[in-house]
Amino acid sequence: MKSDRTYWFAPKRFGFGYSPSSWQGWALVAAYGVLMIAMPRFLHDDANVRAGTMVVLTIVFLVVAFSKTRTSRS
Description:
Largest sheet: 2 strands, antiparallel
Order of helices and strands: EEHH
Shape: elongated
Oligomer: single chain
Distance between the termini: 11 Å
Low-confidence stretches: none
Helix content: 55-70%
Structural class: mainly alpha
Number of helices: 2
Mean pLDDT: 87
Strand content: 5-15%
Radius of gyration: 15 Å
Number of strands: 2
C-alpha cells in the first residue's frame, strides 16, 4: 500500500544521517538556525531563560524533523 505522506527529510546517499529533501525541510532548518542565532538578542536578560528556550526550540525541531523523516521502515 502506497502512502500519500510527504517527507521533508531523507537518508543521505553517502554516509550516515539525513538531509532535507524538500523545501519544507530546508525551511525548517533555516527557521531553526535563524531562531537560535537571533534568540540571544531578544532574550538578553537571563541566561536560564535563554538556555530553556534553546532546549525547547531544539526539542520542537527534533520532533518535527523525526515525524517528517523517511526511514528504511517507512
